[in-house]
Amino acid sequence: MSRKKQPLKTGEKVLFGVAGAFVAFAVIGFVAIEIVASRSEKPLFEIKTHAELTPLGHKGELLFRKRGCTECHRALRNGTNVGGRGSDLDGEGSRRSLDWIYAFLRHPEKTYGAPTLDHGAPPKAASWVAELPEEELRAIATFLSELKAEQGSTVAPLPPEANSPFLRFMSRVMAPDWWKQKYRNVLEEMQGKEQEK
Question: I need a surface site. Which of 13, 53, 148, 196 has the fewest CB within 10 A?
């Protein structure tokens, strides 16, 4: 006995139509961004991280990949930090010293001063890192210490420079009037001082 298919109700048609339109707009937007990015000489997003690797740093980069660190971490814009398990290590050398990074790899929780997600004593997933040979840990630490970030990068220890047009615009447009009356706008003051020079 076969069942006859029921036609879609008006509300269902509208729902599927709206969902289809969202998908179509997302695909069109993605394709448009890819076309613009591929034709532009200037990168879509300014890259504010860099690395000038020494020979030991190059060795550390190879070990970082060979040992599978990229399964949880990103470095040189390769790898992953999906699911929040690992972190983006580009710019790590601007946040931490070589000695701190080495100490963390050897004794993660003692150096960090708190429990860590994956580094530390077994059964943590990356507990094996602390057991790597001294030479490999030193090379990986050197590699990570040579990953630098410019001021204003999302991974830099310092925020964007005060003369940032974006920050000035945001402080003028987004700050409520009560805030402007209560606080000094140091960005505008700094811009005024620069113009006086």
Answer: 196
